[in-house]
Structure formats: C-alpha cells, structure tokens
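Lab notebook, page 48
Experiment: co-folding of the full assembly
Goal: obtain a model of how the components sit together before planning crosslinking
Operator: M.T.
Materials (sequences as entered):
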Amino acid sequence: MPPENPKQDKEIMAAQARQVIDVFHEISTLLNADLDRQTLSICISLIENGVNPEALATVVKELRKDAEETNREAMQQGNQRQREA
Amino acid sequence: MRVGRVRHETNVSALWKTQHHHTIRNDATMSSQRQRVNQGIDRLVRRLLVELPGEDPAATHEKQSNAAEFVREVLESSRGPAVVADVNQASDLIKKRLIQTNASPEKALRFTNLYSKLLSIPAINQKWAVLYFLYQLGYHQQKTPPILTSPFKSPVKNGRESRNLDYGLPKSPEYGSQRESQPFQEAFAPEGLKRLPTREGGQKDRKEEEQVFTKTPALQRESVALKTALLAENYVEIDPPETALLRDLPFTLQGLSSTHLPFSSNSSLKLPPTLPVPIISILHTLAEPSLLYRGLSTFVQSADGGLLGQSLRAAVAGELRSYLGLVATLEGQIRRALSALDEKEPRGGIGKAGVTLKRCVVWTREATMGLRLMSLISEESKSKRGGQLISLIHGFSSSHGDPMVGAFAERLLIHVTRPFYDMLRHWIYDGELSDPYHEFFVSEQDPNAIIDAQDGKNRGGASSVWEDKYKLNEDMVPSIITQDFAQKVFLIGKSLNFIRYGCGDSQWVEEYSKAASKELRYGDTATLETWIDEAYKTTMARLIHLMAEKFHLFEHLKALKNYILLGQGDFIALLMESLSSNLDRPAGAQYRHTLTAQLEHAIRGSNAQYDSPEVLRRLDARMLQLSHGDIGWDCFTLEYKIDAPVDVVVTEWGNRQYLKVFNFLWRIKRVEFALASTWRKCMTGARGVLQGEDKNVAQAWKLTRGVLAEMIHFIGQLQYYILFEVIESSWDELQTAIHKEGCTLDDLIKAHTKYLNAITHKGLLGAKKKYHGEVDENTFMVQLGEILRLMLSYRDAVDGLYSWAVSDFTRRQGAEARTEAQGRREDDDGMLINTPATTRRGPRHLHDSTPVDGSEDSIADEFPALQERLQALGGHFRSRVCLLLGDLAYQPDVDMRFLGVVMNFNDVYQPVRKQTRRPAGKESVKSSTRA
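Observation: model returned without errors.
Model output:
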C-alpha cells in the first residue's frame, strides 16, 4: 500500500471525529449539559477508552462543584481584601 | 474539600482488566489505553479546576494531582453502567427528557435529527455511553434550581405538598412506562404538529425564542429558574385543580360539555365560580375557540345556500378538521403530561410537566384566529351569495393587513371558488349556464322582465337573443376578476350560446369545447387570462365567420343600402316610372299583386337581376297602414326582410330606421320625378302649345320656369347630399369598422347602429334642436316635408297653368279654325247664296261669339288666379328655403353646413336665422310621423 492511503484515512478519521464532536456538542447544548468543546472531546475520548459514563458524569459534576466553591472562596477573599484595604 | 478524601492507593490495571467492552487486548494496547485515560483525566481536571490568582503554582499543582487521584478513584470504583449498554435506550431517555422539559417538540425533533446523523458516523464505538454521559450531566443541571431556592422555602410548602397528593393522578401503567410512551411522543412530537397549518408562524417564533434562550449565559438561566421556583412557592391552590381543568380542556375545545366546564347554552360556557380571576381569564381565552367551534360546526351542518355556499361550508369543515387535529395533539400532550406528573412537586408538578393552561392558550392562539376569521366569514356569508361571497373572502386575502389572515383566506378561497370556476368553465367552453342557484355573474333573463325593461328603454319589438337573453350582473362579479375580464367572459359565453342556438352550429361548439376545455382553478390568474383571451378570440372569429359566410350578413347590409337606401339607381328609376301612374290613385286602390308585379318588373329590367336570389327573395313591396285621403305615394314602401341570426345586427329598430330613410328618400325621389316630368312637359310645350302672343302669359311662364329650375336644383342638391355625402361616407366607415381585425359581433352591432344614426342625423331626419330649453324634434324633417309639399303643390299649379295654356291654345286654335271654317262657309254661302260677306259676317259673328266669349272670360279669369297662386307658392318656397338655409348654416356638423353652401352657391337666397319656430302645418306633422 502506498503511504498516502493511511494519511487519507487519518484525514477522514479526523473529519469524522470533528463531526461526532459537533453532533455531541449540539446534543449537550440541547440538554443544557454546559460543556465546552474541549471538555466534551476529552470526555468522549475517556469514554471511548472504556471509562464508565455514569462515573464520569459524577466526576465532572463534582469537579464543577469544587471549582464553584473555589471561585466563591476566591471572591470572598477578594472582597475581604478590598475591605481591609 | 472533597479531593482531600481521595484514596492514594489506586489499582488502575485491575480496573482495566474488568472492563468488558474491549474483550481482546494485548498488553501494549492496554498500557497505551491506560496512558490515554490518565492523560485524559489530567486534562479534564486541568480544564475544570479554577486557578486562583495569587496562589502559588505548587499549591495548584498539588490540588490538580489530588483532583486527578480522586477522579481515578471514582472511575475505578464504579464499573459497568447502571443501564444496559443500548444506544436506543440512551436516546430514548434523552428524548423523553427533552419532551418533558420543553414546551414544544422542536427540541426533541432536533435531537432525533442529530441522533440519526450520529448513527451514520462510524468513527466512534461508545455512542450510547457518551449519550448517557450527556444525559446524566443534563439531569444534573435540572436538579440545581431547587437547591438554589432552598433558602426561600416557605413554611407552607410542606403542608401543601401533602395536600397535593390528594389531587394526584393515579399513574396509569399505560402511560407510565417509557417504552410505551415513545410511539405517542413520535406521533405528535415532530410531524403531528407540523401538519397543523395555522401554527407555522408561531412555531417559528418559538424557535427563535429557544435560540435566544440557548445563547443566554448560565447565570441568566439560573435567575429564570429562580423565578420559576419563586412562582412555584407562591402558588395558590385552586379548585378544581389545574390538572382537572387540563383534562377537561380537550372536550371543551371540541365543543363538548365536561365535568368542570359545561356548556350552558349553545353560545355560552359555564366556568366554575370557585376559580381565581387569572385562571378565569385564561379560561375565557380558551372558551373563545370552543364557542367559535360550536358555532362553526352548526354552520357547516346547515344545508341552505347555493353551490358556493356549500363549497364554503366544505372548506370551513376542512379547516375545522385540522383544528380537531390540533385538539387531538393537545389532548395527547395533556394526557402524557398528566401521566408523567410528579405529585410531590410544587403545583402538583404541573410546572415541570410542560403542559399548563397558559401553554394551551398559546398553542390554541393561532387556531383561534382562524376560527374567528371563519366565523366572521360565515356570519357575513348569510347575506351574500355567489360572486359576492368570493369577493368577501378575497377581500380578506388581498386587503387584510395580517399576512396570516391573508394566507388563511387564500386557502379558503381555493376551495370556495371551485364551483365558481366550474361554472366559468362551462360558460366559456360550452356556452352553457349551469348555475342552479343564480350565483354566477351572468344570469339568464326572464322574458317578461325583458319586455318590461324594453318599455323603459323604448327599444320596442321582439326580444333579441343576443342582447337580452343573458345579462351581466355587475354586483355579482367577484373581485378576483376585473370588470373588463368579466365583460369578456360574458361575451364569450354569450357568443357560444348564440352560435349554438341562434346560428344552429352546436356541432362546432361541441368540438370546440372538447378541444379547448381546460381545468380552471383559483390562483393562476395570468394563465387563466391567457386562456380566456384565447377562447375569446376563437369564439369571436367563429361567430364573425358564421355571420359572414353562413348568414351573408355583409351581403344583406349591401342589399339594404342598394334597395332601401336607393343606392341602385336604375332599379329605383324603373320602379318609380312603372309605379307612378298606379301610385297617383288613392291608397285604397293599391293592390299588393300589382305592386309586387311592378317590383318584379323593375328587378328584371335593371341590374338588380344579377343580384343573388338570396337577396332578391327578401325584397318586398307593400303598403303602409292607410289613413284617409292618402294616395298611393304616401303609403308605398319597399321592405327588406331580415330573419333570425342576422336580426341581431339589423334589429327591429334598425329596420325602422331603414324604413324611415327609405320613405324620406322615396318622397324626394317622387318630387324629383314629378318635377322632372313637369319640366319635360313645359319644355316640350314651350316649343308648341305654350307659344302665345300674350306677353303677360309668357312672363308668367318664364317666372314659373325659373322657380321650377330652383326647385330642381334644390332637389338635386338634396339628393346628391344624402346619397353621396351621407350614405356613401357612412357606408365607408361601416365597411372599415366591420372589416377590422378582431372585430366582434358587438362591434358589428355598434358600428351598424352608428351607421344608421349617422344617416338619420346627417340625412336631416333626426336632428334635434333646442330652443329655450324646449326640445323641438325633427325640425329639419318638418321643414323639408313642408318644402316638398310646397313643391308638389307648385307642380300641381304648374300643371294647372299648363292645362290652362293648353286650353287657351285650343281655344285660340278653335277660334282660328272657326274663323277659317266660317270663312269657308261664307265662301260656300257666297258661293251658294252669293251675299256680301261683311254684311253677313257681323251679326253672325256676334251671335256665335257669345258662348265663346263666355268661355274666354272664364279662362281669362282663371289665369290671374293661377298666376297668383304660382307666385304665392314660389314665394313661400323661397322663404322656406331661406329658413332652412339659415338653420343649416348654424349646424355643428360640417357636412350639413356644406349642404347649405351647395344649395346657395351663388348667394341667391338670404338665409334667415329664426329664433323660435313652431312645427308647421298639421299635414307636415302627419307626414313626418308617418315617415
């Protein structure tokens, strides 16, 4: 086989992957899942590699909650600092 | 922090060994997979964790690694999904969620599309898993609002929640299971609602709203959720509950009574008095379509009204069916929502179910508009029928500002106009009026009504098939057709009908209708117009062809001109010559057979014999109605008989005009003839009998000849004018008019009427004059009649003079002869008796001359009387002519002024302009009426 073919296959694969991510992204918008494209693609690749989707969902939720808390703390700290100043 | 609880011992390889999706793997792929998972987890943690500003990188790193550990632990601990690995199930779950949380099926539809697209892409193996993952995440978002609103929880809530259970629906297993609910969702979700035409506009709006909604940031969404939650908190319980009302609603919308919403009468809906005002107002809005539907369904079932009324009912019934379709969809939605209701939620969970009374109001809004419009139309249609009905609906579709109303009316119009176009087709292709309910804009006239109408129009005579059989009803012409167009359509049908019945050519009509018949329908006005134009041209061409070829219309017109308008000079001259002696006798002594015999003679003796027998057959001579004291000249008339189809052009009225012109011309001709014969007599007499010694008599003769010459000039000019300036020029115009391209029968009739009018007007027969506002009809007619009468009296006087002159001549000759005879006798006497002549002649002469003297005296007495009479008549004639010239000089018509100039070319007359004039003697009035 000439070396061009795998290259072409790869291109096709990449295009298909992009398409898949597009579709999933749209579905996630429909479902209000609040995922951006990069996070989504990471999650898809994780699931492709056999990660349990339910567990992954829980993890994502947990991580988001953490981020929220961190944000709130940061905000409070910022406010305190402003008051102190 | 939860990350702190993470266990540090992880057994990743054990985790991967248990996975059952990828059965055969070697170590290399397993390690690469593990690597990829680890990388993925790291990246995920990095994306999701927020870096706090001012925190040192070591702490951040620490946090990230902690988080990653936690993630690994969680992922490892739960292997195998809770649901069976089935792509369809994940998609079902999502679809169900979408339908429940969204008002419209739009999102579910979009998801279905995306899903099918997804299935077609082979790039990914774990589609179901990703979908399930997304489903879980989405679910997580749904759960957030109650958590957020928890600080605002009111103490009332718990009590109410327990109360809600009382009203909660028993969950029927039929609607409870997600498997079975799927066909329902599919039935009405994407296509079912799409089919309802009235809702298209609204759906678009909703879609836009959604797009806006999806674009809003999460923060805003949270605030909306907060509001919803607040609303749910402050919700007041109503009786009967909204769920019960919702269950009753489909019945109400179909116009059926239900437990909570009974119809108290045909046009009123009873609302439960226990409801709060806002709910009542919502129910009012929902009651409108219900009541309108009831009204319309009774309207649809009523049977009166013509074809168009029935088609309107059919169209309305169609619209009602689609309304019922909407109601059915609504009912399905309501049932499904009620079955999926979670009683523990606030407001009986109705806020989540997606179907509320308010939603129903929104969904039925456009349908209500349609129903409203239809009930308006059905109200108005009671007093209208046929074309007016179409105009009414067309008015909505063309001049209503709301595009939705316009589109709706347009759709109705397609159905409603069907019988109209059917009639139209029958009319323009078959020439038949199939209109049992008198709805078409052409109507067949009642023969009695025609007679009544004609009394008013003063057209008289028998009804004309062409003019009176059908009538165009201006107010029945629907506004989808212009007046011009309607006129054309009317003409086409009338012509076809005329061809069939008037001209007896139904075969052609049938062939034509077979060849040309087309299906007409509303909407394509341009094509329709071209078709109708085509039909118009074909029909008109055929009709003219028939008229010209089969019924010899043009030949008849020519014959009328030749015989009735005295165009054929030799024929008329011969006829007059042969009839003159006959016509001098009283009218009672005229016999038809002599007249027809003379007519035949005149035809044989002139060029008329070469005319076609078709024409000659129609020529007839007869006497008009006699009145006492008339002589043959007054009553004689030529007639040209016109029969069935052609009398459409040469109408009864036209015939009378022709006769009028003929009588006038015939009188002129007669005067001319009389004057010519007298002139001839005088001329021949002047060389013989009229030569006398008497200067007085010679002078009288000279004057008489002068006046005669004047009269002959007058008559000559008048005849020339009428025949050449009037008839020939009008004929020329008629010829150009009727041989024009695309000439229709109506044009023909019009041209012919114009032709006759021109002749009668310019021919001094119909000119009307006004003096001081009074209409003095036929002034020229009266004047000319008077002048002609004067001429005839003058001729009689001249004849009297002539006979006097002849008798004078004979007397003189007799006297001479007597003297000669006496001389001879004397000679004889002398010879016999031999006495001296002078002695014997005197007493004898005296004796003999006594009677002669007496006769001489009487003749001598007669001469001055004759002379006086001639002078009087001559003077009268002159003054009349001056008057006529005065009138002619002020005519607006150039040709008539020209006549005045020709008659008075050397200014021998002084035209008199008279301001007031009454009709002259009785006799002339009589003659004019007879003419």
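Interpretation: Chain A has two domains: 7-51, 52-85.
Next step: discuss with group before ordering constructs.
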